[in-house]
């Protein structure tokens, strides 16, 4: 294995994790937002998208909406052959750690830090926006911000018995005289790191904890960095594939799917999935976009932020859901600096979105009046039941066909109850054409995203 040199000023390879099934939507966003990029510059693998970037494009990369986490790829070994014994494999991991130029990596990581919204952002939220925490506050009764801190992964045994902040260590040299990578990044930050190992399959002779321990231990010997499992600011990812090996450094401290929502419900959709569904509908300026079963409003919130030249409506049949959705919209309007990057600090925002309580099977909307419907339907697990879905899905598809505009109207519906939705779409082929079915992974469950196009047929002409 030859060492990979990361030149922080030139092109580096970056990878992003994406919900399985939505990789192509993410690749499409990357191609659109990095105009200099060729199609072939973006590589799609299961649950991941890779592309080349450089230091000056980092700000842009952090504005991508479809990706969950982003990593700097430090080393990739395709067709990697694992040694047979543990001892030989440990020796390989030690060698691998020695071959990497950690000084260059920490330099790139230093550039990236300014764009990196970490745990502290969510943790500081209560301090900064105390109204959002209190029950019975001016925004919403009941629910509060989801600030659950990230737990260290189980497989991480690179435990330092002392995780208290330590004084910076004095510069050292290694036994063979090579300079030790200092524990202060170029911008003066103390490096506190952890290694997280993911093992795919069981072919490898070492377990994830053993790999973290050996690889992370060697990094500790050749750098002056502090190990800190819970308050780390640099996360090194070691991926032991079945016949490949990858070392990466996290460029985001937490998943970007947590953005923009302050009042969570039991089934709040990830912002990244909401974005991908909206994107699949190719929303145009001036279009009216409706989520008729909006829950906490992840879809209208994301829609209003990312497609500000359209109007977004979120409806639900429960008052607690519509209240949560309005709280989420109102919170952003009043605290625009909560939203990543785009908006001027201290200037009230005015999201083009509204919330209303209604029943999806009987909407207070004119026939032929809505351009786009994007919705995450009750799966029948946490909300509703599969038996209820057999009545609900055909009824909602019929009502949505009535209100959407003939020929140009689109709908993007997400559900895990794939059999019921397919049957319901088949039963309404006079009004809806199924353009695409995309299976995606939602928290370990396989759900389907169904992209529908309204047919030319008038609702009134539907044969009974
Ligand atoms: C899967 S959840 C939607 C979650 C939402 N995407 C979010 O981010 O919170 C489905 C929603 O459908 C709503 N619902 C169920 N039956 C309904 C009906 N007949 N009319 C309108 N909304 C309904 C439920 O109250 C629930 O909030």
Task: Outline the structure in words.
By secondary structure, the protein is of the alpha/beta class. Helix content is 27%, strand content 20%. It contains twelve helices and 15 strands. The strands form two sheets. The protein has an eight-stranded mixed β-sheet. Strands 11-10-9-12-13-15-14 form a seven-stranded mixed β-sheet, sandwiched between helices. It is elongated, with a radius of gyration of 25 Å. The termini are far apart. Residues 130-166 have low confidence and may be disordered. S-adenosylmethionine is lined by residues 265, 267-269, 292-296, 298-299, 316-318, 321, 359-361, 376, 378, 383-384.
Characteristic terms for this protein:
464 residues; alpha/beta; VC0802-like; Rossmann fold; 2 domains; 7-stranded mixed beta sheet; 27% helix; elongated; binds S-adenosylmethionine
